Fold:
Amino acid sequence: MAVALLVAAGRGERLGSDGPKAFVICAGRPMLEWSIEALRAVAEIERIVVALPPGVTAPPGTVGVPGGEQRSQSVQAALRHAAAQDDDVVLVHDAARPLVTPAIVRDCLDTLASEDCDAAIAAAPVADTIKESDGEEVVRTLDRTRLWAVQTPQVFHRAALEQAFAQGAAAVAAATDDASLIEAAGGTVRLVPAPRENFKVTTPEDLRLADLLLRARG
Ligand code: C5P
Structure:
């Protein structure tokens, strides 16, 4: 069975909201509730642990833990809490991705179960051409056919994730996604194709778009 770690402790400064981003109203509900609903619809997920900002209580049916300064430290705090029980699989999801669906979650869980890998992560092929710059000039154009924009959910065999987080505080603090810690530890990460619609809400424009798309789902 699986435990889901929902990270919701970010301040969301780029969104310019009054409160923490995960609790901003999106299509009529606090943003994190859309993710909780999708996670609850998946039978393998037994528990949801939410990394929270200060002064906020956990939504009903979830367990709250105080988040950390960086995202990866919020994941680590939730993972430590989850260690009290013996789930085989750990799923990590950003509360800032309210457009996640049960189908995306199941695809990640199925890939982890059926492939020989340590992690399975949702990702969408990159649509734009990506160039690398030295700050002033273009250094190179990357081969777009090999590039993926990484999302969450990311699912892990529990032992592999715990080992990855044991690489030390500096490595953990620097990680912008959890799968990169697995890669650094020499583990295998599989990509799970997911729709671009499962984007992360970062700016006010993203929030408007997420609101429209969620309302259109009906
Ligand atoms: O800041 P960013 O948009 O990358 O955050 C992605 C997710 O990580 C969000 O759901 C946010 O609430 C969460 N986060 C966290 N703790 C932090 C920073 C971000 O739980 N210190």
Summary: The domain at 2-209 is CATH 3.90.550.10 (Spore Coat Polysaccharide Biosynthesis Protein SpsA; Chain A). Residues 204-217 form the longest helix (14 residues). The pocket of cytidine-5'-monophosphate is lined by residues 7-10, 21-22, 51, 67-71, 74, 94-96, 200, 202 (CB under 6 Å). Residues 118 and 188 are 5 Å apart (CA to CA).
